[in-house]
Fold this sequence. Notes:
Layout: H1 2-31, H2 33-37, H3 47-51, H4 53-56, H5 66-80, H6 89-109, H7 115-118
Amino acid sequence: DYYNKWIIYSSCMIILYPVGITAIYGIFLYVYRDEIRNRTNKSNLSITVKRLSFLYESYEPKYWFWELVETFRRLTLTAVLTVIKPGTAIQNITAVVLAFIFACLYSLLCPYDDELDDS
């Protein structure tokens, strides 16, 4: 009984943490998106936007949301793939197709601020 309660709790946390933290980041980025998009001088940014800089500073201003895409990519290629017919060719094919889709997306949009990262 005690063990089963912890299984339920840990299962909820495994889902809640990646989804919940990403959602909170998304809300913050969305609320401050205009300030993030129009950033030219770091000294003019609000303290909240400066604290969120780890989420957007690697990307061009128009891709202020790209860390959410990157988080989705990581979750998809790790956690989601573990439940798609483990150990089968379908799992491998799904991984290759998803990796190809994300690679195309990155190549087409070139979201990084540094041109070397885009190549």
